[in-house]
Amino acid sequence: MKAGTKGSSRIEPVVFHTINTIFMLFVVTVTLYPFLQTLAVSFNDGSDTLAGGIYLWPRAWTLENYRAVFISGTIYHAAFISVSRTIISTVLGVFLTTMLAYALAQPQYIFRKKIGLLFILTMYFNAGLIPNYFLIKNMGLLHNFMVYILPSLVSAFNLIIMRTYIRGLPFSLTESAKIDGAGEFRIFWKIIFPLCTPVLATVALFIAVGSWNAWFDTFLYASSDLKLSTLQYEMMKMLGSIMSANNDPSMLAGNQNNQVQSLVTPASMRSAITIVTAVPILFVYPFLQKYFVVGLNLGSVKE
């Protein structure tokens, strides 16, 4: 009886790891296939794409889809605006969110619960699109680059994650620093901020992805100003042209510039646009991935 129990205990881990490996391979395949298929279509000739059957490898290689995307002179400036807003929003957002979270994590701050409640309420209640528009207008942010920065400087969700993480840090660290004569800002900058590296990476990734993918604020507040147009908004205009074309096999970008001679279909253009907007932010994730899971877990769970 003991021998049978011992044999089954040896088999169970093998069976579990085998099933777990098969399941995870299935999840990885399901997750990666849409991206790889889109990548293959983006490098495939548009007229050949109409025949279907493009899976993981282009059947007729071409770069015309990407040439059609970048043929517009506004794309490069729009990309510069998107990169600028992403970097500035991430740096300022992380720094200010951490400072506010540090203040709200102090047990001696008597207003910490009331202010925290106000931020939480913003996650459930919103004034609406029209009041927000008039607020932006009255602040003088219409057709202003700062409209991409100021309204989203501090997120309630990121604040909660950051505050919970800081609460989990040893309170004796700040107490000993105060005894040595350190001020609040010095404690924050020299002790708290360096210890928050995992959650900083998590919040930075959230802010960066949100800023990079944003296009609706451009549509609302700066749609008529080409100097403030973002890459995502330009891509959305291209996608709008594709949808309105209703599978018209004419060259969409070529209607604006006759330099493009080859046929580019809506499906191939859509795939190229998707890759152009997705790939840059994907290169950021590997540098933050080792901190991401740790920071999210520690920042969302309080023992």
UniProtKB/TrEMBL annotation:
Gene Ontology BP annotations: transmembrane transport
Listed transmembrane segments: 14-36, 86-105, 117-136, 148-166, 187-209, 267-288
UniProt subcellular location: Cell membrane
Primary localisation category: membrane
Membrane topology: Multi-pass membrane protein
One Pfam family this sequence matches: BPD_transp_1
ABC transmembrane type-1 domain span: 79-288
UniProt keyword list: Cell membrane, Membrane, Transmembrane, Transmembrane helix, Transport
A single cellular component GO annotation: plasma membrane
SUPFAM superfamilies: MetI-like
Family named by the database record: Belongs to the binding-protein-dependent transport system permease family.
PANTHER family: ABC TRANSPORTER PERMEASE PROTEIN MG189-RELATED-RELATED, POLYGALACTURONAN_RHAMNOGALACTURONAN TRANSPORT SYSTEM PERMEASE PROTEIN YTCP
Protein name: Sugar ABC transporter permease
Native organism: Paenibacillus riograndensis
